[in-house]
User: Fold these one by one.
Assistant:
Number 1:
Amino acid sequence: MEILSAVPWYGAKFQIAEALASKYKRSGITTFIDGCGGSGKMVINAPAYPEMVYNDLDTALCCMFRCIKEKNLFLPFLRELNNRKYELSTFEKANNCLIMFDIEQEMVKNSKLGKITFDLNNEAVILEIGISKYIVICQSYNATQSSFRPATVENLETYHNRFLTLVDVHYRMNHLGIEISNKDMFQMLEDSINEKDSSTLYALDVPYIAGDDQERKAIGAYHKMDWDIRLHERLMDIVYKEFTVPILICGYKSLLYKERLLYDGSPWKEIGIAEVAKSASSKKVQKQG
C-alpha cells in the first residue's frame, strides 16, 4: 500500500507508517483511534478496521480534514486552493483568518460571545477554515505554520503536485471510512479505560516534549497544540498501569517516558525503529497484551 500524507508535517514519521502498521494489527480490535491526529499519517496508512477515527483538538485542522474527506466539500476545496496564489499575501490572509477563528473559539468556550462569525454548521465557513489551515501548513517553512516559505520554482512545483496526493488521500479516507473527531484525547482515553474497552486501539503520535533541556525549547514552536511536560505526565498518569486498552505511543527517545513506563513488571514494552527520518531515529512504546 502506498504511504500517503495529506500535508507536510514536522517529524516525518509517516515514512515508517508501513512498519508501524504491523504493530497495529491484532485480533479483537474493532476501532482504531488516531488520538493526536496531526497530519493524519497514522490513520490514513493504518490497516483497515471496522471503525477508524482521526482525532485532533485543533478545530481548524479537523475542518481541513473534513474538506479533504467529505465528497460535497472536496472539489470546492481543491478548486479554491488552485485559485489562490502561492505568495506571502495569501499566506498572511490565511494566517489572519485562523487567528480570528481561534480568538472567537476561545471567547465562545468562555461564554464571552453571543453572536458568532465562524459558524461550523455552515459549509462555506468549514471550507474557508480548512483552506486557510492547508495554506498556512503547506506555504510555511518546515510546515511550522508561522514563517512563509519563499515561492521558488521547486517549492511551487511541490505545492501543486501535492494537490494530486490530496485526491489519493480523499479516496483512501473514504475507502477506510475514517471519521473526523475534534475531542479531548485524554477524556476519550479515560472513558475507554473506565469502560475496560479492549476492542479500541489508540495510536498516539504524541507531540514533542517542550521545555528547558527537552526535545523542543518552547511550547508551540511548531504547532499551537504542542504539549508541555505536564501534559506528557498527565498521559502517563492515565496509562502507566493500564492492562486492558491497547495503546501505541509513538515518539522520539525520551528519558521521561522510559522512567515512567518501563518499570519492573510494566505491561509496556519499547520497540525501537532505527533510521526512520533524515535527521533522527524514532521510538515507539507499546503495551503488551
Note: Residues 13-57+183-287 form a domain with the Rossmann fold fold (CATH 3.40.50).
Number 2:
Amino acid sequence: MRSATRVVQTRLWSFATKPFEVLSASLRSSRSQNFRLLPLGLTILVSWAGDSQAATQSVALAWDSAANAAGYRLYSGTTSQVYTQQIDVGNVTSTLVSNLINGQTYFFVVTAYNSSGVQSALSNEISYTAGAPTPTPTPSPSPSPTPTATPAATVQVTARTNPVGLNFTVDGTAYTASQIFSWPAGSSHTISTTSTQSGGAGVRYMWTRWSDSEAISHTVAPTKNTTYTGTFTTEYYLTTGAGAGGTVNPGSGWKNSGATVSITATPTNNTSVSYHFSSLIGSGTGSYTGTNNPGSIVMNGPITETAIFIQNPVQVTVQTSIAGPTFSVDGTTYSSAQIFSWQPGSSHTIATISPQSAGTGVRYAWNNWSDGGTMSHTVMPTTNKTYTAKFTTQYFLTMSAGTGGTVTPASGWKNSGAAVSITARPAAGYSFTRWSGTGTGSFSGATNPVNVTILGPISEAATFMHN
C-alpha cells in the first residue's frame, strides 16, 4: 500500500547511477569572500514514503532564499562533507530528489550564486537515509564559521601641491604630480618639499604650509584616508626703472600674485637741472602704461614698469665780472646780466670784445670766459649755467720829464690797483728835483724812485735842475 504527500516544487532531481565525481574540493575553491550571503538553512521538507520493499525512495528538500541570488546548486554524497554530485536547480528554494537506494544514507548541502556565477558559502549539511521514517524536519545547527584572519587595515593617502605640478617628496622619492599611496594604517612616512621653487623667468613659488599644519619636512602616520596638500604662494617679479631725470618707487622685487602695487615716479629738481614726469611704460599682464602718477598695477604675471621724464628748460645766466663791459648773446648786445630759458642742449653763441673804453684814461680788458671758451664761442648747456666774462679795469699812467733828465716806465695802461715804481734819471750836469703827480694814487714829492698805486688815471712829471 502506498501513500503520497503533495510537495510544491519546480524541479525533480533523479539520483544518478553514473560514476560519482568528487566535487567538494571544487566547491570550496569556487567560493568568493566578496559574495557574502547569509548561511542558507537546508531542511528535509518531506520524504516520499513507499512500501518497504521498494528499491528506491525520494526526498523533498527546501532552503532559505538568499538576497541577490540568481539561482541555487544542490550538492550530495554518501559521505559527510564529501559531495560527489551536484545539480543547478535554478532560482527556486525547494526540489525533489528521487532514485535514492533503500537503506543508503545521503548528505546534502546547498549554495546560492549571483549573476556573475560567484557562489555563497555552504549551507548547513543534512542527512537522509532512504526507506527510514521521515523525521520531524528539524534543521541541523549551522556549523560555526571558521574564523578568518582579518587582513591588516590599509588607508588611502594622497600627496599633492597647490598649485599643482610643484616638487615634493614622499619617503625620499621626488614627485611633481599628485600621488595616491596605499599604506598600512598607522605606518610612518615622511613628506617634504622645498621653500622656494622656480616657475620660470620672473615666477617663483613660496611654500606656505602643509594641510596638516606641520613643518616643511615632517613625519605622518595616518590611520584613516588622508590628503596632504603642500600650499604655495605664487610670486611674480616686478622690475622697475627710471630714465634720466628721476627715480621710481618701489624698487624691483618679488610680489604676491594678485597684489595691487602703486608705482610712483619722482622727477629730479635741483639748482642744476629740473625734470617733469612724462609717463609710465609697462609690459606684462596687469601692467600700466599712461600718464597717471602714481600708476596702479596688478601682479598677474612678471611686470616691467619704466618711468619716463622730460627735462625742463635750463636757466642760463650770461654776465660780466664787473659792471660796465658789454657782451652779446646770439648777436644781441647786453650791458647787464641776462637770464635765458633754453631747451637743454640747444646751441647758442656768447661773445664780447676787448678792450672796451670806459672814458678818458679808463678801459676794460677781457681776461676769459668762466667756461674757458674763447672770446666768442658756442655753448650747449644741459643744466642750469652761468657764463661770466671776466674783465680787468685798467687806468692810463702818463709819465713825463722836464729838461735835464728821463723817467721810467713809459706811459701806458696799468691794471687797477697795481703798484708801479716810477724812477727819474737826471742827465749829466743835472739833479732830480721832485715829482708832481695828479690822479688817485699819484705821488708828489722828492722821493725817487717811488711807488704809485693805480687807482685811477695818473700823471707823474719829474723836474730837474742844472747843477
Note: The longest strand covers residues 226-242.
Number 3:
Amino acid sequence: MISGHAAGFGSWAAGDGDWEFAWGLQDDAESIGAIQRALDRVNWIDTAAVYGLGHSEEVVARAIRGRAKRPYIYIFTKCSLLWGADRRIRHSLRADSVRRECAASLRRLAFIAPPPLGPGPDS
C-alpha cells in the first residue's frame, strides 16, 4: 500500500524556461535544493515529461540521487503530452506513444526500466 502525505512537491517550474508553458528561467541547483528540503517533510514528487521537455524529470533524478535516509519517495509523472522540433506541445494517448513515453521518463528519472507494457487496444 502506498502511504503518502497530503502534500508533496510539484516540479513544473524546475522544467526551466525554454518551452511553451514555462514559468521562466530556473536555477537547477536551487530547484534541487528545494526538492531536497521538501523531502524532509513530504514523500512524493509530481513531475511530467512535458515540464521543460524532459528537464524537470532530470532535475528530480539529480535531487533524489543518494537519498538513502528516505526509503520511500514516490514520483508521479504523466504522459500524453509530446513535443516536436518546434517545441510545441501536442497530445497522444496511443499505446505505442505511452510505451515510448514511459521508457523515456524512466531513463530521465534514472530508474531501471521494467518490462514493456503489453499491447493496448490501438497497437
Note: The longest strand covers residues 44-46.
